[in-house]
Amino acid sequence: MGAPRVEMKITVAKLIELAYSQNKDLTAKIVRSKGNFKISVDKNGNAILSGKAGIVRFSGAEVLEKMGLEVSGVGVNFSNAGAGVIRYTAYFDLKVAKIAVHGDFDIEKLITSCSGFLCRAAKALKGRNQAYELELQRIMGN
Amino acid sequence: MSWSFNALWGTEMKRTLIIIVILVISGCAISQRSGVVLYGIYSELYASVKAGRVEAEKARFFSSSYLDEVSSSKKNASFLLAVPRVIEKVDSHYEKIDGAVGCLTVNGYENDGQPVSIYVEYVLKNHEWLIDYIYLNLLENVSGFEHRAICPNKD
Q1: Cα A32 from chain centroid?
Q2: Residues of B with Cβ-Cβ distance to A95 under 8 angstroms
Q3: Sequence-separated (6 or more) residues with CB below 8 Å from residue B78
Q4: In this predicted complex, what is the ipTM?
Q5: Among A11, A113, B27, B85, which residue's CB has the most CB atoms within a 10 Å radius?
Q6: pTM
């Protein structure tokens, strides 16, 4: 039995893009700022991206529902490692268990305006898109 | 005289060597016995999962509150019962017991070679150690291995 490592990393990317689709400018400011930032999602899917630059509220319910495991909450702590690299640790709560996954990604690959993958990702969010999933996987690491 | 000295010396050497071997073996046995109470139970769970018996044997391994959650979450049930199977190859393990609570750390690798640690909290109920909480730490590299028993943070 393999751990759901890739699925969880893709979920982190999807949460960022949901915040981005909710408030593009503020999300870009938060994730590009030098300080740490975080995303938290409660059991109802209410999600918050927060950092020094502000707060973006959005719904993460759809992303959680699509996961293979029933997750009662998600927390992701991001830290800026310099040179555009963001490190993160994500926690997925299963009530009697918790799964932590770690990774890093290039923030500019996530935020290169609407010519980048974010807008395509937002459009593809409603339906499953294999190419989109693979691109997220490539950006977030295996 | 020299032959008897050699024979005597050889006998003494053999006796000394035998005593050393006995001491080493018994020392290892004692240290392993005191350090693998929880890991022994964990290994039995691993074998049960691998043999497909865990559903029938789950009451032997998990606390009632853990099994309540298994029953209420169909999506998570099989995963929660089979977490030890995430580790294909064990690297190291550490445990500590404090009263009726025990904590076990198992470091190892998934089947694709990626490092992973499992921190398990056990509770003692009716003279049996039962899993009450599991923290699965999917690591990026082996520097994340903890070389001590970690009690999982539930917050």
Answers
A1: 14
A2: 69, 73
A3: none
A4: 0.83
A5: A11
A6: 0.81
What Rg, from alpha-carbon coordinates, does chain B have? 22
- How far is B92 from B146, CA to CA, in rounded Å? 9
Strand order in the sheet with A46-51: A54-59, A46-51, A37-41, A73-82, A85-93, A97-106, B128-138, B115-125, B101-109, B89-98
B121 in reach of chain A (CB within 8 A): no
Contacts with B, A 102-121, CB within 8 Å = 102-103
The per-type count for chain B, helices as H runs and strands as E runs, is 5, 4
d(CA A96, CA A46): 21
Contact A65, A41 (CB under 8 A): no
Q: Which residues in chain B have Cβ-Cβ distances shorter than 8 Å to A5?
A: 110, 114, 138
pLDDT score at B33: 35
The position carrying tokens 């996530």 is A110
Q: What is the pLDDT of residues A31-59, one digit of tens each?
A: 888 889 999 999 999 999 999 999 999 99
| Residue to substitute from A64, A96, A99, interface B, most B β-carbons within 10 A | A96
Residue A96 touches chain B, beta carbons under 8 Å: yes
Mean pLDDT (whole number) for A98-111: 85
Q: How far is CA A35 from its chain centroid?
A: 17
A141 — pLDDT class (breaks 50, 70, 90): low
pLDDT (tens digit, 9 = 90+) per residue, A1-33? 667 888 999 899 889 888 988 998 899 899 888
Please give the residue of chain A at the shortest CA–CA distance from B68.
A96
Query: For residue range B33-79, what is the model confidence (pLDDT) as tens digits?
Result: 346 899 999 999 999 999 999 999 999 999 999 999 999 998 999 99
